[in-house]
Amino acid sequence: METLAIRAKEEKVAVIRSVIRGVGAHLPARVLTNAELAEMVDTSDDWIVERSGIRQRHIAAEGETTADLGAAAARQALIRSGIDPLDIDLIIVATATPDRTFPSTAVRIQNMLGITKGAAFDVQAVCSGFVYGMVCADNFLKAGQSRRALVIGSETFSRILDWEDRSTCVLFGDGAGAVVLEAQPQHGDRTDRGIIASRLRSDGRFEDLLYVDGGPSSTKTVGHLRMNGREVFRHAIQKISGVIEETLLTAGYAVDEIDLFVPHQANKRILDGIAKKLDVPADRIVITLDKHGNTSAASIPLALNHAFEQHKVSEGKLVLLEAMGGGFTWGALLARW
Prior knowledge:
Blueprint: H1 4-10, E1 15-26, E2 30-33, H2 34-37, H3 45-52, E3 56-59, H4 66-81, E4 90-94, H5 105-112, E5 119-123, H6 129-143, E6 148-156, H7 166-169, E7 174-186, E8 194-202, E9 210-212, E10 225-227, H8 229-251, E11 260-263, H9 268-278, H10 289-292, H11 299-309, E12 318-325, E13 329-336
Parallel strand pairs: 4-5, 4-6, 11-12
Antiparallel strand pairs: 1-7, 2-3, 6-7, 8-13, 9-10, 12-13
Helix pairs in contact: 4-5, 8-9
């Protein structure tokens, strides 16, 4: 493997950055509308849209796994990147709904893609998982331990929902998104492409506000998702706004310099609250939750893929990713496309 440090020295560059080379996504074929949900639980389309902004979600078919969705998204990202799968030496899958307790979903996807070198592992930070995974990959690439990474967010949340609980079953869906990162030498200034700054946070004091009431060690069951929606909403706006400001301060950028905000697609009211608090124009925020609901770790790459397909991102654009999930975990990441 070419030594990036030597290359950087020869080209008189200052830093190694993790540059986004490709993005992809995959959604299950089955669409579950609000009207259909209203036939299953005591709810309505108006009630769901008013409280969340969600109009439909995708549901994985019987036998369709988190790895299946993630591999499909990864294949699209790889094609768009122009990078051969065999040149990938790191795979990180962010998921709270793995195919098995072990091995990791990442090694299953590695096998599906025909990759036999490098490392593959899962990260579990629920809805913040994709940001956590991107930061992990960035650190591997900057350290020279890997050259090209595949970061995937993939979920089958329909498998852990209580379909009689209208406060949660209307919010979540299944899907996957993926990004290909490549370590590249950059000049260390404001023209740099790639990941510029990031911040990750967690606070376990709030674990009972958003959790799954099962697990191998505690109940020997998978369990169902449980959430105190009012408290999650209250914490989300404060914590996400704070970590965005901290990330931008570290990078030396102001809010109005960001070309595109790609948030975790949890709830339209949360997104509106953050936008108002930070004074972010609506046309700079990517919103896709109306189409696929809250897909946890998959929601940011799904939204990023949507922005790419709508030609909202191009080389040189500054993009900010942010999320908060159960734990609580939260984080933000700033990159130049």
